[in-house]
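My current task is to audit a protein record that another person submitted. Thanks in advance; the entry in question is below:
***
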Amino acid sequence: MIKAVIFDMDGVIIDSEGVYLQYQLEFAKKKNPNVKPEDLYPMVGATKQECWEVVERAVSNGQTWEELRTEFRRRDIYGEIDYRSIYRPEVTDTLKQLKHAGFRLALASSTHLELVERVLKENGIREYFEAVVSGEQFKKSKPDPEIYLYTVSQLQLKPEECLAVEDSTIGITAAHRAGLKIAAVIDTRYGFDQSLADYKLNQVKDVLEAVKGA
């Protein structure tokens, strides 16, 4: 029986992946005008090193992924983004209903903790999560299962008692390796493989039906 729902953040709570890709595409095209959006799709949900290895291959100008990442970081894109404008509005009511139904809630995101906390607070939903975990706390983040195993341990539950809400191939893989049930928010934009998911959600609020059948 499912006792807790563990949410990913990017692509689930906020529709941020396309916004980040736009900044990254703008940067990459300055290096190589022939870079296409689809060249960067493998960045979505990947670890930081894997992300910038994708850029390194796409740009192919002799710079290492470390050099490219350092240069990109000189611009504070996170300070430019209004996270309330890309928040999925159905999330608030979904969290309220899950809480009311007795489910415990947690968040497990690859994003650094400071930004995770900012997004949750700006959108008024921090209070719903009893555990908030960031990939920066571990040597390996998703698709490594450690972030999910740790989050489950923080809740003092078993993996099979938890449902992960994810979207990307990498996030789904991490939850699967950790032994959680998985509900995937359908997103056809980036070529995600969601075949390991137990449930498919057209919208985040559909998780309310998924937990009934889990």
Summary: Residues 92 and 180 are 23 Å apart (CA to CA). The chain has a mean pLDDT of 95. The longest strand covers residues 104-109. DSSP finds nine helices and six strands in the chain.
